Amino acid sequence: MSIFLKKRAQSLLEYAMLIMVISAALIAMYVYMQRSVNARFKQLQVELEETKR
User: Fold this and answer.
1) Which segments of 1-53 does DSSP mark as H helices, in order?
2) How many CB atoms lie within 10 A of CB 16?
3) Domain spans of the chain, in order of start
4) Per-residue pLDDT band at 4 (split at 50, 70, 90)
5) Is the whole model's pTM more than 0.85, yes or no?
6) How far is the C-alpha of 11 from the C-alpha of 13, rounded, in Å?
7) CA–centroid distance for 38 within its chain
8) Which residues of 39-53 are buried (b: 16+ CB within 10 A; e: fewer)?
């Protein structure tokens, strides 16, 4: 293998790993954001039920 092909393969591997790390971070953030949104909806629901009384 030539040096160019080895460096190209290494670059592709590095980009793939970077994309995997970013994807994992986005998935983790999505879970926390979803919990936050659900908590806010629950809070709004409780507030609306209190105003009905």
Assistant:
1) 3-52
2) 10
3) 25-53
4) low
5) no
6) 5
7) 17
8) eeeeeeeeeeeeeee
